[in-house]
Design goal:
With 334 residues, the chain is mostly helical. It is built from 18 helices and 2 strands. It has 2 domains: 174 residues, Serine Threonine Protein Phosphatase 5, Tetratricopeptide repeat, CATH 1.25.40; 92 residues, Serine Threonine Protein Phosphatase 5, Tetratricopeptide repeat, CATH 1.25.40. Strands 1-2 form a two-stranded antiparallel sheet.
């Protein structure tokens, strides 16, 4: 058992790091970025209407679980769920931990502990909690899927693949397991299998925009621009305020020389998330092409400030260089 648990360790170089970015070159000075983010807490809220995650009515576990678990542990589990609903994540973690101590067989307590820990950025403890949930209930597919997602985020790709495959064996229609597997294959540049996984995630989780978005990313990597646009539009049909999807549509329009369409997409991206620096950067490039240098300088300034505030100094320097160019051009006679 100790060896198996040790194999779950998250790469120390990866712990706490920012998500890796894939880069797609639009021009010599224009790149877009997107995050690989395994579907753990957020996607489970969207995709898994399980009693193991807080719901408006906070239902009790099913009868077979209730019969095999101690009532005090169940009470603590439900108190933890109520704390999550109230936004008291640390209180919830303490309650879930007490529940697991009272009844180590209560998979729901381990599982929700993992979700709460992941919400606070504690990746390794979250993986450990999901693992304990799989030990308490070896047929609990969402626990395997979230364990795989945590390991993927920690760059333990082989073990992540094993647990995600196990989740799908247990529940072939578990959308966020297919999604996480798609992210893994995307990271491995296994494009065809990534496409297949994202399409299954879209089939089984039609209300989640992330699978369609990442399908678009893979199509871009394959040079299939029309399919990429369709995928981004599908993501936006599910969530019209998806800033990365608007941004990548803008990137395509920019590459194709359709500047008004590109600018509109970048504006929608910034409107969806006013702190999304790439949207301002992209808009600045459009304004440069349109020779609207004052407007370009304004949005490059926004982009530079956001990049620097968000700990991205390289892109802050890129924005600063373009800001200087825009200011110089704005003062030249035309």
């Amino acid at each position: 058992m100790t060896d198996e648990i040790n194999s779950l360790r998250i790469c120390n170089k990866c712990r706490g790091r920012k998500k890796e970015n894939l880069i797609y070159k639009i021009s010599s000075y224009f790149q877009w970025l997107h995050n690989l983010r395994p579907a753990i807490v957020v996607s489970l809220i969207l995709l898994c209407g399980s009693i193991l995650f807080p719901s408006p009515t906070l239902p009790l576990p099913p009868p077979d679980l209730a019969q095999s678990s101690s009532q005090p542990a169940l009470d603590l589990l439900n108190q933890g769920l109520q704390a999550i609903q109230a936004g008291r994540v640390q209180d919830a973690i303490a309650l879930f931990r007490k529940a697991t101590q009272l009844d180590p067989r209560l998979a729901a307590a381990h599982y929700n502990l993992g979700l709460a820990l992941r919400q606070t950025g504690k990746l390794q403890p979250a993986a450990d909690a999901f693992y304990q949930a799989t030990q308490a209930d070896p047929k609990f597919a969402p626990a395997f899927a979230n364990l795989g997602g945590a390991l993927l985020e920690g760059n333990n790709l082989q073990l992540a693949n094993d647990y995600l495959q196990r989740a799908i064996e247990l529940d072939s229609k578990l959308g966020f397991a297919h999604y996480n597997l798609g992210l893994l294959r995307e990271q491995q540049r296994d494009w065809q299998r990534a496409i297949a996984s994202f399409k299954k995630a879209m089939q089984y989780s039609p209300n989640a925009p992330e699978p369609a978005y990442h399908l678009g990313i893979v199509y871009l990597q394959r040079g299939k621009i029309d399919q990429a646009k369709d995928a981004f539009r599908q993501a936006l049909r599910v969530n019209p305020k998806y800033p990365e999807a608007h941004y990548n549509l803008g990137s395509i329009w920019f590459q194709q020389g359709k500047l008004p369409e590109a600018l509109e997409s970048f504006r929608k991206s910034a409107s969806s998330n006013s702190n999304y620096a790439n949207a301002y950067y992209g808009a600045g490039l459009v304004f440069m092409q349109l020779r609207q240098y004052a407007e370009a300088a304004q949005v490059f300034q926004y982009a530079k400030d956001l990049y620097n505030a968000q700990g991205n100094p390289q892109w802050g320097r890129n924005a600063q260089q373009l800001l200087q160019q825009a200011q110089n051009l704005n003062y030249q006679p035309r």
